[in-house]
Amino acid sequence: MTTLNTNQTILVVGANGKTGSRVVNLLTDKNIEVRKASRSSDTFFDWQQPSSWDAALTGVQAAYVTYFPDLALPSAPAHIQQFCELARQKGVEHITLLSGRGEEAAQICEDIVKQSGLSWNIVRCAWFNQNFNEGLFKVALDSGVLAFPVGFVKEPFVDVNDIADVVVASLTEPGHQNKLYELTGPELLSFEDLAALFSQELGKTVSFQPVSVEQFSLSLQQMGVPDEVIQMLTYLFTQVLDGRNESLADGVSQALNRPARSFADYVQRNRDVFLEQGYD
């Protein structure tokens, strides 16, 4: 695939998610037809129901693929393999896959996409900034205490808007095909650093408190978080967030010829939202 014209259709799997919703909006702004697919979209799509994939893939030329809740799940490689095979049968030309840094299962899925016979891109990402206002971390931030089962490991948190910009470039511009972009923010930050940054930018006291895995899991259960999501988060905190990702990557600048957005910029842009949340 070189570049798409506006008469073609791009499938976005996970169209209501943090990255998917932004990709949909950016593609729509380019007057490109988008097929939004998820469990709550007009085009129904569920990774656990392969029978739902056929309609989503029919008549599209490219796809942006996110796996719910995460490629770390044991079921992910088989599903990605089956999805790629069906995509080829349906005449899809290109897949851009959202992946995660330091996740062994995710890298298996990356290899499946690379070997699928399709044109491909991998966007291998650090942890998202937007988890603090659009994800499960929001509850912790609302309380004023970032209570997570992690020590003082640093992570190069990445802005979801940067991810979406790279994804759209991979789907619509020449020169990107068959490349892996590793996306991080411009600095390494511990959760203690984040608490200090939130406190400074918002004028509210936010602290970091390490907790046990058992305490963390129990708090998620009390929030009604599904078991598979709890297992995924526990895996990410206890195994992936072990220092293996304490390095910066330049995928944003490689793909977009501009620097990655900083975490401080993210907080400043969303300051009103954070202050409306409150910290009681």
Note down, in words, how this protein is organized.
- The protein has 280 residues and is α/β, with parallel strands linked by helices.
- It has a domain at 9-128 and 158-184 and 246-260: 3-Layer(aba) Sandwich (Rossmann fold).
- 44% of the residues lie in helices and 16% in strands.
- The protein has 13 helices and nine strands.
- The strands form two sheets. A seven-stranded parallel β-sheet has the order 3-2-1-4-5-6-8, with helices on both faces. A two-stranded parallel sheet has the order 7-9.
- Helix 1 packs across helix 7 (160-172), helix 3 runs parallel beside helix 4 and helix 9 runs antiparallel to helix 10 (227-240).
- The longest helix is centred in the N-terminal third of the chain and has 14 residues, at 76-89.
- It is globular and about 55 Å long.
- The termini are far apart.
- The mean pLDDT is 95.
- InterPro entries: Ergot_Alk_Oxidoreductase (IPR051604), NAD(P)-bd_dom_sf (IPR036291), NmrA-like (IPR008030).
- Residues 110-238 form the NmrA-like domain.
- This is NmrA family NAD(P)-binding protein.
Give the structure's gist in a few sentences.
This is NmrA family NAD(P)-binding protein. The chain has 280 residues and is of the alpha/beta class. The protein has helices at residues 18-29, 53-57, 76-89, 104-114, 131-134, 137-143, 160-172, 191-202, 213-222, 227-240, 251-256, 263-269, 271-277; strands spanning 9-13, 33-38, 43-44, 62-65, 94-100, 119-125, 145-148, 179-183, 207-210.
